[in-house]
């Protein structure tokens, strides 16, 4: 560890944080081979301080101009009441972040701060609560997204299916609710489900109903009018349910049917997540008519000790292909992905493996990377995800539910909670053969506006370099880093037991990391969210690269918001440099390393680094290595998301 140099950028409230000394960058991009940027000098400090002051003044003016500074009154003194989340009581996992401190909220949020948190190009309902994506599909020119929705409140409950359509999965039109809990077989909630498009174009929707007696059953619904491009009306099959919990399965451990696929006998198959003791399992049912389902013997797969598997997703990927595959695809050159959402820890795990269509079983390629114990789709906040096959662009698209990282009482004040991720394409990682590549759909690039590029910026150990790009609340960032090879080779430090989550975050200085970017930071660095690489050298001389996001200093709101450090190991192959793509959209930051081999989605709630005060920096907090960064930043326009003008039809 290096010694701690005091600078004006040290956080006063956190002495454990290593300094991020400050090296101003000229307004213009740095040409290749430009002289190294030095550490901060007094004159520059003065200039920076003056700039910060002017900046603060303009921020205050902006905030005052934009909305009244209405402090939200909070009750700090009342006793904290331990309670079980309403989801758990109803047979699903906890749905909200309940805070760290076990106390009621303490931060004086203003309405302007809350208003800033609403995103500009992520899908979210106009108001109230949303969770899992449901039944995504493409029909007659429209991408349809259904979602778990509480029409009455910003907390989980009274779950119905919200509905929206889009021609590009970026700009959305809200439609009326697709299904509400109004029958005995779904009276406690129209829970998660999936769509299957049959070869003749019929659409079969299977979903979990939580019955009037809180039993989880699978129900069938279908469009009232298939020639309606908007699929406004849905009919629930009169003789629902079509599947009930089989013998040996608890009535509240049977949910979330997948998209169906055709088995080796030509019958349709559907998978449903479940639990036996502590083993998460996938049950398989077959049908010929979509109303009568027969359970197959055994399970598709199960992993002891992983708990209930929610929102199972099961689909093929092409091993060397560049396209996605329809769900029934099977044959040489194809692997199958099994994904499940772990009720116990609320993370989405996947594994690549072989599907045997005769026995209807799936075997992971690497038992050590099995579902629930190996790879995750995303190492941040990302849950209950679901894919569909986009027959138009021949690609598999993944949606994920991004919950809030603030407390429920704040969600109620904001009047909304949760987002959907930017949809991601899913491809097999042909280079590693062990991972998937998840990448924001190309349509999001249509929102890119002004861009600024900085090439070959030298980041000396301990430097923080501001990037002069103006406001930084809506960005698409692509960055590539190069670590000085000579130093890398000469380094003898063995630092192999690194772990983003248990590390000291971006403050923890090693010889070869951390280095990366600071998003949603203010000029004085009182708030900052580092997204970074940390290279650890193994005893045999090989390297391991970690990709992390550190929320520990992301907000002055303290315990009211998520302060964890997220991340994982990411394979960086010999011919690759550490690269990242980061989408910043107000309170959500989606980060992708190595073309999507590792992803980290976080929710960030700054109190200072908002509106015009949000800034972007490069940093290198390693002690022993120079890093060169090349970075391109686009400002992002807002997506058009509003109600469909049905009255004008
Ligand atoms: N959400 C739904 C369930 C599912 C859970 C209920 C996952 O069907 O298991 O809102 O978040």
From TrEMBL:
Glycosyl hydrolase family 32 C-terminal domain sequence ranges: 443-635
Pathway: Glycan biosynthesis; sucrose metabolism
Domain Glycosyl hydrolase family 32 N-terminal: 122-440
Domain Beta-fructofuranosidase N-terminal: 22-113
One GO CC term on file: vacuolar lumen
Domain of life: Eukaryota
Single GO biological process annotation from the record: carbohydrate metabolic process
One function term, GO molecular function aspect: beta-fructofuranosidase activity
Regions that span the bilayer: 45-64
UniProt keyword terms in alphabetical order: Glycosidase, Hydrolase, Membrane, Transmembrane, Transmembrane helix, Vacuole, Zymogen
Primary localization class, coarse: other
This protein's record includes keyword Endoplasmic reticulum: no
Subcellular location: Vacuole lumen
E.C. numbers: 3.2.1.26
Entry similarity comment: Belongs to the glycosyl hydrolase 32 family.
Name of the protein in its database record: beta-fructofuranosidase
Organism of derivation: Vitis rotundifolia
């Amino acid at each position: 560890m290096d010694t701690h140099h005091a600078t004006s950028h040290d956080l006063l409230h956190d002495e454990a944080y290593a300094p991020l000394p400050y090296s101003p960058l000229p307004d213009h991009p740095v040409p290749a081979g430009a002289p190294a940027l030095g550490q901060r000098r007094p004159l520059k400090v003065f200039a920076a301080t003056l700039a910060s002051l002017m900046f603060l003044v303009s921020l205050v003016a902006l905030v005052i101009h934009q909305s009244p500074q209405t402090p939200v009154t909070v009750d700090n003194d009342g006793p904290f009441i331990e309670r079980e989340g309403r989801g758990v009581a109803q047979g699903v996992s906890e749905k909200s972040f309940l805070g760290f401190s076990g106390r009621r909220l303490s931060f004086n949020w203003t309405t302007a701060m809350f208003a800033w948190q609403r995103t500009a190009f992520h899908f979210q309902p106009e108001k109230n609560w949303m969770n899992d994506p449901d039944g995504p599909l493409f029909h007659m020119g429209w991408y349809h997204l259904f979602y778990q929705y509480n029409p009455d409140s910003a907390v989980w409950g009274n779950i119905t299916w919200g509905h929206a359509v889009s021609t590009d999965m970026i700009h959305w039109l809200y439609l009326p609710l697709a299904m509400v809990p109004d029958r005995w077989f779904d009276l406690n909630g129209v829970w998660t489900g999936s769509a299957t498009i049959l070869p003749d174009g019929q659409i079969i929707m299977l979903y979990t109903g939580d019955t009037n007696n809180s039993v989880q059953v699978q129900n069938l619904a279908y469009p009232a009018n298939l020639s309606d491009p908007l699929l406004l009306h849905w009919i629930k099959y009169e003789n629902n349910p079509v599947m009930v919990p089989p013998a040996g399965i608890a009535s509240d451990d049977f949910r979330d049917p997948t998209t169906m696929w055709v088995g080796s006998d030509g019958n349709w198959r559907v998978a449903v997540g479940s639990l036996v003791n502590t083993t998460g399992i996938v049950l398989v049912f077959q049908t010929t008519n979509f109303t009568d389902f027969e359970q197959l013997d055994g399970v598709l797969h199960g992993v002891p000790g992983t708990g209930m598997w929610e929102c199972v997703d099961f689909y093929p990927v092409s091993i060397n292909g560049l396209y996605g595959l329809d769900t029934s695809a099977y044959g040489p050159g194809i692997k199958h992905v099994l994904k499940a959402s772990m009720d116990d820890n609320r993370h989405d795990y996947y594994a690549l493996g072989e599907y045997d269509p005769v026995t209807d079983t799936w075997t992971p390629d690497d038992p050590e990377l099995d579902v629930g114990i190996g790879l995750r789709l995303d190492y941040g906040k990302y849950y209950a995800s679901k894919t569909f096959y986009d027959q138009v662009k021949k690609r598999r698209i993944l949606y994920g539910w991004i919950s809030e990282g603030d407390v429920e009482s704040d969600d109620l004040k904001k009047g909304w909670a949760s987002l959907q991720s930017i949809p991601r394409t899913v491809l097999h990682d042909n280079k590693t053969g062990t991972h998937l590549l998840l990448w924001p759909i190309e349509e999001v690039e249509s929102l890119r506006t002004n861009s600024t590029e900085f090439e070959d910026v030298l980041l000396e150990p301990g430097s923080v370099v501001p990037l002069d790009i103006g406001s930084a609340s809506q960005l698409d960032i692509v960055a590539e880093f190069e670590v000085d090879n000579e130093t890398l080779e000469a380094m003898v430090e063995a630092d192999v037991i690194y772990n983003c989550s248990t590390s000291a975050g971006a403050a923890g200085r090693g010889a070869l990391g951390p280095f990366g970017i600071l998003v949603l930071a203010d000029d004085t660095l009182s708030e900052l969210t580092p997204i970074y690489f940390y290279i650890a050298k193994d005893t045999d001389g090989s390297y391991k690269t970690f990709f992390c996001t550190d929320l520990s200093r992301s907000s002055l709101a303290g315990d009211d918001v998520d302060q964890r450090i997220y991340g994982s190991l990411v394979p960086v192959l010999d011919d690759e440099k550490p690269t990242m793509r980061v989408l910043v959209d107000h309170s959500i930051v989606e980060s992708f390393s190595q073309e999507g081999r590792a992803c980290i989605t976080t929710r960030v709630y700054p109190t200072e680094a908002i509106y015009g005060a949000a800034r972007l920096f490069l940093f290198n907090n390693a002690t022993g290595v120079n890093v060169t960064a090349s970075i391109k930043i686009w400002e992002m326009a807002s997506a058009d998301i509003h109600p469909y003008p049905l009255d004008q039809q």
